Amino acid sequence: MKNILKAVLICSIIFSACTKENQSVTADRTAQGTNGSLTRFAIKDNFMYALDVNYMKVFDISTGSDPILVNSVNINYGLETITIYGEYVYIGAHDRIYMVGINDPSQPLEYDEMQHNISCDPVVVQGNYAYSTQNSFEVGCGHATSQSILAVYNVSNPQQTNLLKSITMTSPYGLAVESKNLYVCDSEEGVLVYNISNPESPQAMSTIPVANSRDIILNFPYMIISTQTSFEMYNYQDVNNIYHVSTFQLK
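Above: the chain's sequence. Below: its structure in token form.
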């Protein structure tokens, strides 16, 4: 645990410095990717949204040292991951993705569900599109199907989302999206880099050779990739020349 906390602290310091040095570069980039896609809590403004098995709990954190539970919303069973984009919370569950509106941040309102086979399914969003990895082989995810995929959804209409494309994968986990590129962790293949100039049809570009990759955080020009045993830092300023910067071993 001490190693993990130390690693997170180091990453935070590095990311803070990078942000200050690259404000002009990052001004046109989205806020997506500042936290990992496998997380079970997310913060927007003065509210934190956290998951347990079948509830999303809403905390008012405006007082800082004294969070207040203001709502507990029954979504469904098997909630796994959470991310926020714009005025919506996207929740990955065993068999679907929930899209929840937070125009009123203390009173979330469910808009739509994107159903899929039972699997683990972190999700990231950019513009009108959501990207979800669905790993059917991870322990605890149900094993209902033999196929793991990267799924692309159109979420422009929060009351009528639809699946646009499925890309077969080996063993996908966390992912991140920024501008015209999508980064997908695959524990067997490495981190797969896709071009999403056409957001409905990701095109494979390259692979970052990271063994047992699990999740990824972007903060231009650096990315941190978590594995089973380490944090790996890469520079992705030139997406055609992504290179390794450092390693922090966890065990």
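The domain at 2-249 is CATH 2.130.10.10 (Methylamine Dehydrogenase; Chain H).
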